[in-house]
Amino acid sequence: MSDLANVHDAIANLGIEGDLSAYGAEVVSTLLLGFHSPKSDIDVVCCYSDQSSFATELAGLYGALENFELKVCQEYCLCRFYFQGFQFEIYGEETPVIKQNAYRHFQIMRRVKMLSDEKFARNVRALRRQGFKPEAAICQLLGIDGEPYHAILVLENKTNEALTELLSRL
């Protein structure tokens, strides 16, 4: 079974998208794009209206899983655990999922992946092995200046034609 098939298998076997559907759960992992590093996890973003209920549900659903951790902060809730050899990281906040940066970054990276070739993905993975975060790796390759977590958002409103032009300069 390929690595990607293992990722999909773990997500399906855990049932996370169904279990957390009330929170608009979206998987936003670079593992799904081929932009991963050996330390990549399976990221899931959620939106809650009641943080306490969300945290209680996470603990009930995943509390018995390997290395379960739950961090509840004023503005967000973060849960980590291992399942089928993958670390899962579930992040929730009150902001709708489609407005959260992790979701927006994933959509940008998915478009870049769709418009680029395998060489680009290999270059991203090579930078990831050197310690770059995915946003930083893509910004480095595309020559985008600034703090990568914010700078990558410059690609969000570019047309596919403009992104293709940017990628063709590599």
Protein architecture, described:
This protein has helices at residues 3-14, 16-19, 51-62, 101-115, 118-129, 134-142, 148-151, 160-168, and strands at residues 26-27, 42-47, 66-72, 77-83, 86-93. It is an alpha+beta fold. α5 (118-129) packs across α6. It starts with a helix and ends with a helix. The model has no long low-confidence stretch (mean pLDDT 93).
Give the key terms:
170 residues, alpha+beta, five-stranded mixed β-sheet, 8 helices, 5 strands, globular
Poorly predicted ranges: none
Task: Compute the average pLDDT.
Answer: 93
Order of helices and strands: HHEEHEEEHHHHH
C-alpha end-to-end distance? 32 Å
Largest sheet data: 5 strands, mixed
Helix share bin? 40-55%
Number of helices: 8
What order do the strands of the largest sheet run in, or round the barrel if closed? 1-2-5-4-3
Please state the structural category.
alpha+beta
Query: Over all CA atoms, what is the radius of gyration?
Result: 17 Å
Strand content: 15-25%
Shape: globular
Number of strands: 5
